[in-house]
Structures are given as C-alpha cells and as structure tokens.
Amino acid sequence: MRWFLVCVLGFIRLYLDGLKVLLYQIFNKSFRLPDLPKQSGKVAIVTGGTRGMGYEISRHLVNLDMHVVIAGNEEEEGQAAVKSIQEEFGQGKGNFLHFLMPTPSSLFDPDLFVLLEMGCGEEFG
Fold it and tell me: Average of pLDDT values for 64-73?
C-alpha cells in the first residue's frame, strides 16, 4: 500500500509542476528569441522544418538572412512551408529538398552527408 501512495504522490507532484509551468506561461511575457547577428551568405539545412518547432527555426534562420534548405519526406508540406516563408521574407530565402529521413542508427553514415550535399551542394556551394 505504501508503494502505491508514493507513486500517486509522485504523479500528483509532477502534475502540479506542469500546472505551475502552464500558469507561468499564461500570465508572463512570451518567450523572446535572442538578438543574433545577421548570417548573410550562410546556408542551413533544417530537417523536419515543415511544421512545428522545425518550421519556426526555419523562419528564424531566414529572418537572420540565411538561406534555409528544409529537408523532409512530405513533398506537399515542404513546398507549402517554403512558399509561406518566401511570402513572409521574400523570394530566394528557402527551398525544399525531398529526403527520406534515415533511421537513428544511420545518422552517422557518411553516405547521408553525400546525399545532402548532392541535393543542395550544387546550388549553394
């Protein structure tokens, strides 16, 4: 019985911590990205940049004057993300590279980087 109470109290504590964070986020200033220097002439490859955090990272990098290559496996979502970014920040700031994401074990395979270079290296150096 004691182990059950310890588990339940742990879950309640965790729930209350989450509630505190939620209330803090609701009633305090929103998160503001730091001021970073312009990154003109640089290229960033963002995997998973078609939505969510990856999309927001792509937007922020384009705002820093970088050219962003969004690599993903959903062609339609990728083109829509690039179109949205280009409409917001201007033409030529991003493009999409259709790329089937590897498994976690193959992330360190040198062939992966060769494929990425073939997909965007010719255009951006």
Answer: 84
**Token pair listed for 2:** 């004691």
In this predicted model, what pLDDT tens digit does every residue of 84-123 receive, in sequence order? 888 888 776 777 776 666 666 556 666 556 655 655 555 5
* Cα(84)–Cα(34) distance, integer angstroms: 23
CA dihedral 90, 94, 96, 99 (to 10 degrees): -170
